[in-house]
UniProtKB/TrEMBL annotation:
Domain GST N-terminal: 23-95
Protein name: Glutathione S-transferase-like protein ustS
Organism name: Mycena sanguinolenta
Listed GO MF terms: transferase activity
Signal peptide region: none
SUPFAM superfamilies with a match to the protein in the record: GST C-terminal domain-like, Thioredoxin-like
Length: 238
């Protein structure tokens, strides 16, 4: 369900050469919310300056105390709010547009946050495989930034499958979503990673085709089931 009235929310995302342009696992968490957005594409080196200019806070604080700015960020012309970080965005949308799909149903915030942490730990191994693929779809300015700010990790493809296997065991057999018959932020978290792999490796790649077979095709089915929740977007470059 889309927001009933008002102007489209401005959604800041990172562009690529992949079909559909969107690829980031973090921004896909917000893209899956069924709202009307106007997308503004921002290359990696421009993100920090953009956030400071529009008043978006840092997504997190580094260990050395410096701010770290990242996307997604939304700017809501209907309220004047500027919100960074996918979790804070989910909480803002739940509070501001209660008529739309609730991302963190009442009483589940701790569950969703715990699931997010554990899901990241279970799938961190994928970084070794996906970063080289992502480099090939980024534009040159973002490629340079991506190389400078990513460190190699050491793992194996089977470890990634095992990580998704752990997530599979947390979910009830036959249920389409983490919480049963309806999606929540936890599903968008998983789907964000899956979209990352799909865009980075390519839909026809052996790696993506392998992922779609894991755990009785659960992950391909999840993306298919979430298609109707993807928002509608107008697009422009920053």
């Amino acid at each position: 369900m889309e927001q009933a009235t008002g102007s489209p929310i401005i959604f800041y995302d990172i562009p690529s050469k992949a079909p559909g342009c969107a690829w980031s696992p973090n921004t896909w968490k917000t893209r899956h919310v069924c709202l009307t957005y106007k997308t503004v594409w921002v290359e990696y080196p421009d993100i920090a300056d953009l956030c400071k200019r529009i008043g978006a806070g840092p997504s997190t604080i580094r260990d050395d105390g410096s701010p770290y700015y990242s996307l997604p960020v939304i700017q809501d012309p209907n309220t004047g709010a500027v919100v960074s970080d996918s979790t804070r965005i989910a909480e803002y949308l739940d509070a501001t547009y209660p008529e739309t799909l609730s991302l963190m149903p009442a009483g589940t915030r701790t569950l969703q946050k715990g699931f997010q942490f554990t899901c990241h730990r279970a799938t961190d191994v994928s970084t070794q495989f996906i970063i080289p693929a992502i480099l090939s779809i980024l534009h040159p300015r973002s490629q340079d930034y991506y190389v400078r700010t990513r460190e190699a990790t050491f793992a194996a493809w089977k470890d990634l499958e095992a990580g998704f296997g752990r997530i599979h065991t947390w979910m009830t057999e036959g249920d389409p979503f983490v919480m049963g018959d309806f999606p929540s932020f936890a599903d968008f978290l998983i789907a964000g990673k899956l979209q990352w792999y799909k865009k980075g490796f390519g839909e026809e790649s052996d790696k993506w085709k392998d992922i779609t077979t894991w755990h009785d095709g659960r992950w391909a089915k999840l993306l298919k089931n979430l298609e109707k929740y993807e928002g509608s977007f107008e697009e422009r470059s920053e």
